[in-house]
Write a structure and sequence with these properties.
With about 475 residues, the chain is α/β, with parallel strands linked by helices. About 35% of the residues lie in helices and about 20% in strands. Strands 7-6-15-16-17-14-18 form a seven-stranded mixed sheet. Strands 9-2-1-13-19 form a five-stranded parallel sheet, with helices on one face. Helix 1 packs parallel to helix 16. The chain binds flavin-adenine dinucleotide.
Length: about 475
């Protein structure tokens, strides 16, 4: 008899899980609350503009290609991913700019313009992050961390890679200049962590980018989701859209079936949750079955930052703006402390500006420009009232961008809308409205994260940002590779 597997949630992790199980000949159903797939990677279309809701920086594209190759299909017939030359433009309050890329000659030229002495440190940092990458990504990203003994065995290597240091501290041990420290340690922010507290193991992202480059999916990241949906349909995965799972029903800790928001039920041998693990354990399952250790683990979890994302289209084309721009505020560390520790807003913001039209004109009507700006904010543990604060942040970020990057912005905006942590909490069902599930700290990584194979329920599995190895598209795609090994 065929194994019947249900995947709850169709983000990148859920889709990858559905395909990997289908390749193992399971009968697979994937259920998504919204009318379109993608989760954080869904697409909003408004007035001729195409706004990718979330991921824009595509790294490790082979992990996407692999999903097509599982079924002997050529990815090029479904998606079109191409490398970018300039990866990020970093901009500082004093106007200093740094174009970050895989071109080492240009990188070193710019480093020497800021601080010549840091060239050697940069070279040594790259060498060290390669070591972290070899262990943390190549060796461990797609292996299960369900057993404590396996974690214990990894500890000596992780300690020799200085996992007890933060990414910022690791970078500071090689680099003297503060601007360069910020540039080379910002990577945890891409997966919801604070560079000042995230374990140095996440320094591996710096090397991962260098190894495989940074890519863009023509037509937007949404085109990758569209290609994967086509593949799922061709491979006879049942796709149910616009239905929320409200309950996972078990008997003696063995998963039996799920219940939908219309009270219908569906049974299965395995349930794979791409939905946020904290929210699943809190809302879809029964707390009565949790042992004290698990209750403690769940209670002590720290959540990633929230996100304010403002999507806008302009009638003016801002040709001098790169595809990805990161602007650092003056009080960078203080801003991050306010977000992660103090859970309060700070007007001295740092932000990321996305301009897909720099690479792909199809994202906006002719003669227009398409953007989103992402401002990290506290998650909903802050109890901030976004219905009043949302508009204030929108005005603050427009004002900032108008002064430094996009002159006359306000009068050129022709369409706009924004999302706050409330969207992540209410629409995407994430605990505390966090942008990236639980934080990527050492104390909540690998064995200490939510396990891919539930330690409480038989037949229950997790893929996606809240489980091993963690957030970001490469992370959640790797979590489906872990699943493939344990199911
Ligand atoms: C604004 C933003 C920018 C980002 N930029 C990048 C980037 O440039 N590069 C990168 O690699 N990563 C980026 N990330 C991170 C990356 O997008 C995420 O880590 C990844 O997409 C999360 O995928 P996931 O598989 O965990 O599922 P999610 O995308 O979180 O999807 C989970 C799905 O489950 C559904 N669901 C939840 N509960 C239920 C239920 N009860 N019933 C049915 N369905 C349910 C939700 O509706 C959702 O569709 C970004 C994230 C955000 C928010």
């Amino acid at each position: 008899m065929k194994m019947k597997s249900i995947v709850i949630g169709a983000g990148f992790g859920g889709i990858a899980a559905a395909l990997r199980l289908r390749a193992k000949k399971h009968q697979v159903t994937i259920i998504e609350k919204h009318n379109e797939l993608g989760g954080r990677a869904r697409v909003f279309k408004k007035n001729g503009f195409t706004f990718d809701a979330g991921p824009t920086v595509i790294t490790a594209p082979h992990l996407i290609n692999e999903l097509f190759e599982l079924f002997n299909k050529n990815p090029k017939n479904y998606i079109n991913i191409s490398p970018l030359n300039t990866w990020y433009r970093f901009v500082f309050e004093d106007g200093t700019k740094f174009d970050y890329s895989g071109n080492e000659k240009l990188m070193k030229k710019q480093i020497s313009e800021i601080n010549k002495e840091d060239i050697i440190g940069y070279e040594n940092l790259l060498k060290f992050t390669k070591k972290i990458f070899d262990k943390g990504f190549t060796e461990l990203a797609d292996v299960p961390f369900n057993k404590p003994l396996f974690m214990i065995k990894q500890l000596p290597a992780l300690l020799s890679l200085k996992s007890y240091k933060s990414v910022y501290n690791l970078v500071s041990s090689y680099i003297k200049n503060e601007k360069l420290k910020r540039i080379l340690s910002m990577h945890p922010l891409l997966v919801g962590g604070n560079p000042f507290t995230t374990t140095s193991i996440y320094g591996l992202i710096l090397y991962l980018e260098k190894k495989w480059g940074i890519h863009y999916s023509m037509g937007g990241t949404g085109q990758i989701i569209k290609g994967l949906e086509k593949l799922m349909t061709e491979e006879k995965i049942e796709i149910i859209k616009g239905r929320e799972v409200t309950n996972i029903i078990s008997e003696k800790n063995k998963i039996k079936k799920i219940k939908f928001d219309n009270n219908k039920e569906m049974d299965a041998n395995n349930i794979i949750c791409n939905a946020d693990p904290s929210a699943v354990y809190d809302n879809l399952l029964s707390e009565n079955n949790y042992n004290p250790l698990f209750k403690w683990k769940k209670r002590r979890m720290e959540y990633s930052m929230g996100l304010f994302v403002y999507y806008f289209g302009t009638k003016k084309v801002y040709n001098n703006i790169k595809h990805h721009t990161i602007v650092f505020g003056k009080k960078y560390e203080e801003h991050l402390n306010d977000i992660f520790q103090n859970k309060k807003l700070n007007n001295d913001i740092s932000y990321y500006l996305h301009r897909p039209t720099a690479t792909d004109k199809s994202m906006a009507p002719e003669g227009n420009d398409c953007f989103y700006v992402l401002v990290p904010v506290p998650n909903n543990q802050s109890r901030i009232n976004w219905s009043t604060e949302g508009n204030k942040i929108k005005n603050l970020v427009i004002e900032k961008m108008e002064k430094s990057l996009l002159p006359d912005l306000r009068k050129n905006i022709v369409t706009d809308f924004y999302l706050t942590p409330d969207y992540f909490e209410k629409e995407l069902n994430t605990k505390n409205g966090s942008g990236f599930s639980i934080q990527p700290k050492f104390s909540q990584s690998a064995y200490f994260r939510f396990h891919n194979k539930s330690e409480i329920y038989k037949g229950l599995y997790f893929v996606g940002a809240g489980t091993h190895p963690g957030a970001g598209v490469p992370g959640v795609l790797s979590s489906a590779k872990v699943l493939e090994k344990i199911i």
